[in-house]
TrEMBL record, chain A:
Protein name per UniProt: Xylose transport system permease protein XylH
Transmembrane segments: 29-46, 58-78, 85-103, 109-132, 139-161, 181-201, 213-235, 266-288, 300-333, 345-365
Keyword Membrane tagged: yes
The protein's role, per its UniProt record: Part of the binding-protein-dependent transport system for D-xylose. Probably responsible for the translocation of the substrate across the membrane.
Membrane topology: Multi-pass membrane protein
A molecular function (GO) term: transmembrane transporter activity
Species lineage: Bacteria, Pseudomonadati, Pseudomonadota, Alphaproteobacteria, Rhodobacterales
One cellular-component annotation, GO: plasma membrane
Keywords (A to Z) from UniProt: Cell inner membrane, Cell membrane, Membrane, Sugar transport, Transmembrane, Transmembrane helix, Transport
CDD domains from the UniProt entry: TM_PBP1_transp_AraH_like
Subcellular location: Cell membrane
Highest taxon, organism lineage: Bacteria
UniProt keyword Zinc-finger, yes or no: no
UniProtKB/TrEMBL annotation, chain B:
Protein source organism: Gemmobacter lutimaris
Key word ATP-binding present: yes
Sorted UniProt keywords: ATP-binding, Nucleotide-binding
Alphabetized InterPro entries for the sequence: AAA+_ATPase, ABC_carbohydrate_import_ATPase, ABC_transporter-like_ATP-bd, P-loop_NTPase
UniProt GO MF annotations: ATP binding; ATP hydrolysis activity
Name of protein: Sugar ABC transporter ATP-binding protein
Stretches assigned to the ABC transporter domain: 6-246
Length: 373, 259
């Protein structure tokens, strides 16, 4: 046998990789290109419509942040190799549950919120447990929970209030310490100052005259940023993140080297439920009411953001930053078409096409990573 | 004679009505390569899964360095120093070599809850270990998917050796490889053996077994047909034992002894 330990020199069979190609296999690339393209596009067609004034920016930022919150959960779950189709139903369910607990049963708001989080994460754990125990695809298991949760939401809402909208949450939020964590705004002083300095538009008449049209950054946006940073850090910088990749890449191979795949997957289902709850709590606090039909189709929108962001539907590959950029693209396009006075139904056409292009790109990228075989 | 690192005695494994293993005895000592040969369906896979803690034997005794043990999970076996490299499930193609290398045993730094991966350390050690095994990487972040089948086996072997395996079980490491890659893997086995690690080499290719084996055990229909030392047996003899009889001998005659 020849000894091959000597070779520190380059292997003549391994071609040098161009920086372009190296960049191409980063999962975020599609998201970065898409974001730039979308901004250029709407800069051209809607640049003078107020889309890039303070109010317009806040408009699409909030919409993007909504997508971002659920996309982070969906992204980590998809990388670990599973889907959660119950996200949308979970949004409706958690909102109504919280409203029933606080408004109908009279619990303090903070207790209602915490109990809702605990209960919804427990449902997420049950989803994960069922997927692991039965070995069924998570697609089927969470499709079942999509219907079960939506049904329970409508039934619960009608049973307690005889209607599908439960209002009165804003009254319960008065003086509560946990409410502002979801419904509040930050940096209001800064925005007032920017308004006074004339950097951003202010109301010129009415009882809010002199106040800036954008009076602070909603907590939803803060949650989105925090979740993206946390998710990215968890995925790329921690041991647990490595296990998430491993569980989705090849669960059996991961098990053989001692990765607790089942625990990882169940935790990711719980995290997905957590993100859905953050979304619905922010929404309920903003509107002051909960409605049983909230969150319709959100599960698919979350998955679209994640796929645009470069994650593979089969798991094991993806990026939280990519998913966040996917959410920005989604939000900017949706609101941008509105600012551009385009026919809003075209949004769906556009979305479908982006999705298709993203998936084709991803398949190609995967072939590059795995050595074009 | 030294105590075997792993000693399996009269192992039986039943799956319902099926008797997969019906009394298998096998041991491996430090610094030797013990080949386990058998045709498809002879019970090789069941046996190594029993040895690596995936299955619990229905009957029989397992000893590690003289002490009886019962493995509840693959983790127990790994803790005892038994590492298994599976034919196709060794690596995750989409992940980098470094991340694969450390998978399940990632080095960390910092204080909880901000403990992070020590990527610099992980990458440096991965590169060193790969170079020792004769694999030149573009970088530690190269995906395993870009490596050849033989290189993947070698990465998996390097990983097991680095993490202190005393016994290395290789499940048909050469069955899907070309000539050159096979030679590389056999070279790796030889190198590992010289470090004092016991190697269990599972194969149905007699020639590969003869190239590196110190002892040979043939498994047929869930039973061991005996163990032979190097030099006591030749390739045709092993071939006959694996086939368990005459059909192959007849066939071999008509094919001119080329199988």
């Amino acid at each position: 046998m020849t000894d091959t330990t000597s070779g520190a020199a380059g292997d003549e069979r391994i071609k040098d990789v161009s920086p372009l190609r190296r960049m191409l296999i980063r999962p975020e690339l599609g998201g970065i290109c898409g974001t730039i393209l979308v901004f250029i596009l709407f800069g051209l067609i809607a640049g003078d419509s107020g889309m890039f004034a303070a109010e317009g920016v806040m408009n699409w930022t909030v919409v993007s942040a909504q997508f971002m919150v659920i996309a982070v959960g969906a992204c980590l779950l998809m990388i670990s190799g599973e889907f959660d189709l119950s996200t949308g139903s979970m949004i409706g369910f958690s909102g109504v549950l919280m409203a029933i607990l606080s408004v109908q049963l009279g619990w303090p708001l903070w207790l209602a919120i915490l109990a809702t989080f605990a209960f919804c994460m427990a449902i997420g754990a049950v989803n994960g447990w069922l997927v692991i125990r039965t070995g069924l695809p998570s697609f089927i298991v969470t499709l079942a929970s999509l219907y079960i949760l939506r049904g329970l939401t409508i039934w619960g809402s009608v049973y307690f209030t005889r209607q599908t909208i439960i209002s009165g949450v804003s009254d319960r939020a008065e003086g509560d310490w946990l409410g502002p964590v979801f419904g509040g705004k930050i940096l209001t002083g800064l925005f007032q100052w920017m308004g006074d300095a004339g950097w951003i538009a202010t109301f010129t008449r009415g009882n809010r005259a002199g106040q800036p049209v954008v009076d602070g950054i909603p907590m939803l946006v803060v949650w989105a940023i925090v979740l993206v940073i946390f998710g990215h850090w968890l995925l790329t910088r921690t041991k647990f993140g490595n296990w998430v990749f491993a569980s989705g890449g090849d669960a059996q191979a991961a098990r053989y080297v001692g990765v607790p795949v089942n625990r990882v997957k169940i935790l990711m289902f719980m995290f997905s439920a957590f993100c859905a709850c953050v979304f619905s709590m922010c929404q309920v606090m903003e509107f002051g009411s909960a409605a049983a039909d909230r969150g319709l189709l959100k599960e698919f929108e979350a998955i679209i953001c994640v796929v645009i962001g470069g994650a593979l539907l089969t798991g094991g590959y993806g990026s939280v930053i990519g998913a966040a950029l996917g959410a920005v693209i989604f939000g900017v396009v949706q609101q941008g078409l509105f600012f551009a006075n385009a026919e809003s139904s075209l949004f769906r056409v556009f979305l479908g096409m982006i999705l298709l292009i993203a998936v084709i790109m991803n398949t190609y990228i995967r072939r590059i990573i795995t050595g074009e075989r | 004679m030294t105590t075997p690192i792993v000693d399996m005695r009269n192992i039986k494994k039943h799956f319902g009505h099926v008797i997969a293993l019906n009394g298998v005895s096998f041991d491996v000592r430090a610094g030797e390569c013990h080949c386990l040969l058998g045709d498809n369906g002879a019970g090789k896979s069941t046996f190594i899964k029993t040895m690596s803690g995936v299955f619990r034997p229905s009957e029989g005794e397992m000893r590690v360095e003289g002490k009886p043990v019962i493995f509840e999970s693959p983790r127990d076996a790994m803790t005892a120093g038994i590492a298994t490299v599976y034919q196709d499930l060794a690596m995750i193609p989409l992940m980098s070599v470094s991340r694969n290398f450390w998978m399940g045993r990632e080095p960390e730094k910092g204080i909880w809850p901000l403990r992070t991966l020590d990527l610099a350390k992980a990458d440096a050690i991965t590169m060193t270990e790969m170079r020792k095994m004769g694999i030149n990487l573009r970088g530690p972040d190269q995906a395993v998917g870009t490596l050849s089948g033989g290189e993947r086996q070698t990465v998996a072997i390097a990983r097991a050796v680095y993490f202190g395996a005393k016994v290395l079980i290789l499940d048909e490491p050469t069955s899907a490889l070309g000539v050159r890659q096979t030679a590389n893997v056999l070279g790796t086995i030889d190198r590992v053996r010289k470090q004092g690690i016991g190697v269990v080499f599972i194969t149905h290719n007699v020639r590969h077994a003869m190239a590196v084996g110190d002892r040979f055990t043939v498994l047929n229909r869930g039973q061991t047909l005996g163990t032979a030392l190097r030099g006591e047996v030749d390739a045709p003899g092993l071939q006959d034992m694996m086939a368990g009889g005459q059909e192959l001998a007849d066939l071999e005659g008509s094919l001119g002894g080329t199988i």
